[in-house]
Amino acid sequence: MGYPDPTTTAGRRQRVLAAVRALMAEQGFRVSMDAVAQRAGCSKQTLYAQFGSKNALLQDLMQEHLDITTSRLEAFDGQVREPLLAFAIEHLERISAPDVVASIRLFSAESPQFPEEARSIWRDGGESLLARLAAWLSLAMDAGCLRRDQPHVAAEILLSMMLGMDLERQRFSVPQRTPEAQHTWAELAVDTFLRAYAPPPRAAHC
Length: 206
Fold this sequence. Notes:
It contains ten helices and no strands. 70% of the residues lie in helices and 0% in strands. The protein folds into two domains: 1-52, Homeodomain-like (Arc Repressor Mutant, subunit A, Orthogonal Bundle), CATH 1.10.10.60; 55-203, Tetracycline Repressor, domain 2, CATH 1.10.357.10. The two termini are 34 Å apart. Helix 1 packs across helix 6 (98-110) and helix 7 packs across helix 8. It is an all-alpha fold.
């Protein structure tokens, strides 16, 4: 797969977002636009012109993360297990990436000092992820592929099952699951969820 030309607007955007990801792992909420510009190799004026503000830049980063993670949940095509499993594997891989693990640890420690930034990260990250998953599960419920029962609750249950104790392992620097073990866990979580939310036999259409 090719990479965006770094001299184009799209290429510069990817370079900036990569710089933000790296800096968040090093500095947490203390990332400045000066540091981003220096790491990305562009001027601060260019940074503001393209993204508008630090908050908008962080929103763009979270949006990109969500778009990639939920790419299999953009539409409902009558399939349930395959897209949910692809989503679970992608999500687990992303939250176990070294830069994400480092960022989560810093955010957890710094949230009391940066409450507004912490709420923003939660709103644009965790809350938006929950809403997207709930919307997709609602479509599956409408199609008769899942038992109809509070999509937002179902989404939170599935995310909790997918994560298991992974965040606790990250917090205490305990070795995480191998990619193979992550895949096995994702299958177990999704299949257990599907059994719990299976529609009545006569109502199943998937």
